[in-house]
Specification:
single chain, alpha/beta, 345 residues, Rossmann fold, two-stranded antiparallel sheet, 14 helices, eight-stranded mixed beta sheet
Length: 345
């Protein structure tokens, strides 16, 4: 960016850093909800979008922190002074990842397909008795070649959406306790692959016509709609929820893809794929940028708000129904009354 744009950005960031220190009730009334234009883009890295930030005293939790985008986000946020709770599928993986990062990192584990483990992980985080400045729902699975079910529901929908839905609700009060807590939920441009009529409420097991990419897109549409409805429920508070598309990146998320796609990525990926450092930029930006204080209910790509490519992305009625159905499917694993009851339905 040129010097003038850089100076303007720094001035705005400084002002918003001051505003972020105000009480949440005051903050919610005076902050504009419109995202500013970002000086960053598709080739920005997580280090670049957080340059100059001092995250000392802030705590973030990140799922899938043992590899790929989650690991890079954890590394950079810890480098900026944040305390990061690095969540992996096993404690061994979490401990290994946290030990390899310079800064304060605490390992935690959950299996998003095992709802009891999600509850236990959330309980461990709550027992630390500190606010969460951000929960980054980063982990996921992609393009399972064969249909797999968890409690009768298609597995990608369970892991990518329902497991995180439980975690969000279990940690709602913990994030809302921060001066300006943020939920950052990874969606994907792959939401375009979801069925044209959106969430398949009458066939969440995909019994009729399973296709790997359709089911993956379905789960990513659910992520975006979950964030949209959460943002509505958080309206009027100082807590926000936004979803992001990180870009196309070669990580172990693609481990289930056919061999020929792996070959194509190896040979031609340089032409259209981001590096891990670039892929982590948007979620790091949305989680930490002072310029996004009070920005709620948006979908970001390349560090800027994006309307999404399908009308379903902004379907508020579908988002509300998804939340209600998700509550029904996970009722036994949600908090009895506290956090969720504090937010308007």
């Amino acid at each position: 960016m040129n010097e003038m744009n850089r100076r303007t950005f720094v001035q705005q960031a400084g002002l918003l850093s001051v505003l972020a220190c105000l009480p949440g009730s005051v903050l919610a009334q005076i902050i504009s909800k419109t995202p500013p234009n970002s000086p960053f883009g598709a080739d920005s890295t997580a280090e670049q979008v957080t340059a100059g930030l001092d995250l000392s005293g802030k705590t973030y939790a990140i799922t899938g922190a043992n590899s790929g985008l989650g690991y890079e986000t954890m590394r950079v946020l810890a480098m900026r002074g944040a305390h990061v709770i690095g969540i992996a599928r096993t404690m061994e993986k979490a401990q290994e990842a946290c030990a390899s990062v310079a800064g304060q990192c605490t390992p935690a584990s959950l299996d998003l397909a095992d709802f009891e483990s999600v509850v236990n992980c959330a309980g461990m985080i709550r027992s630390m008795d500190i606010p969460l400045d951000g929960l980054v729902c980063n982990a996921g699975i992609m393009a399972l070649p064969e249909r797999e079910l968890v409690n009768g529901v298609e597995k990608q929908f369970v892991v990518n959406h329902l497991g995180h839905f439980i975690l969000i609700n279990q940690l709602m009060a913990t994030v809302m306790a921060a001066p300006q807590g943020r939920f950052v939920i990874l969606s994907s441009r792959a939401h375009r692959a979801a069925p044209e009529d959106g969430i398949q409420f009458d066939d969440l097991g995909f019994a009729r016509d399973y296709a790997a990419w359709t089911a993956y897109g379905h789960s990513k549409l659910a992520n975006a709609l979950c964030s949209l409805e959460l943002a509505r429920r958080l309206s009027g508070t100082s807590t926000t929820s936004n979803s992001v598309h990180p870009g196309v990146i070669n990580t172990n998320l693609g481990r289930h893809m056919p061999w020929y796609l792996h070959v194509a990525q190896t040979l031609f990926g340089w032409a259209f794929m981001k590096s891990v450092e670039e892929g982590a930029a948007t979620q790091a930006y949305v989680a930490t940028s002072p310029g996004l204080v009070g920005v709620n209910g948006y979908y970001f790509a390349d560090c800027n708000p994006n309307p999404g490519e399908t009308p379903q992305m902004q379907d508020e009625a579908m988002a509300r129904r998804l939340w209600q159905v998700s509550e029904e499917l996970t009722r036994d694993y949600l908090p009895a009354a506290p956090a969720g009851a504090a937010i308007p339905a």
